[in-house]
Amino acid sequence: MTKGFTMKQMLEICGITEDAVRYYEKIGLLPPVERKPNGHRLYSLADKETLLSIKCFKKIGMTLDEIKLFHKLQNADDTAMSKEVSLQLQNYQLKIKDQQQQLQQIWDLIETKLQSGHKVGIRTN
């Protein structure tokens, strides 16, 4: 039998819920998983990487349908598809860069307020 990860191990490694993993299997984001003789799921390294990528893409705002399309495009042997994947990733990089800049502005404001001892710029009257 192939060595792999149990459901419990996968949940701990990936930081997602059992319901999420089962749902990803159900909708085809995660391919059918190998089973032990007792019926328990046995996840591969590829399954782990897939789950971690799903988690990452969700964090940047991709919907599950977008992630599914992205995985389909990524696995295609078509140069045009590869270019589409690259364009999508570049667009998400730009989105993340913008979010970083916005978060840095918030960080700087908080840092300034903490260092100066002044109240945050909210007036009540």
UniProtKB/TrEMBL annotation:
Gene3D superfamilies for this protein: 1.10.1660.10
Protein name per Swiss-Prot or TrEMBL: DNA-binding transcriptional MerR regulator
SMART domains xrefs: HTH_MERR (SM00422)
PANTHER family (alphabetical): REDOX-CYCLING DRUG-SENSING TRANSCRIPTIONAL ACTIVATOR SOXR, TRANSCRIPTIONAL REGULATOR, MERR FAMILY
InterPro entries found in the cross-reference section: DNA-bd_dom_put_sf, MerR-type_HTH_dom, MerR_fam
A GO molecular-function annotation: DNA binding
Coiled coil: none
PROSITE patterns, A to Z: HTH_MERR_2 (PS50937)
Organism of origin: Paenibacillus harenae
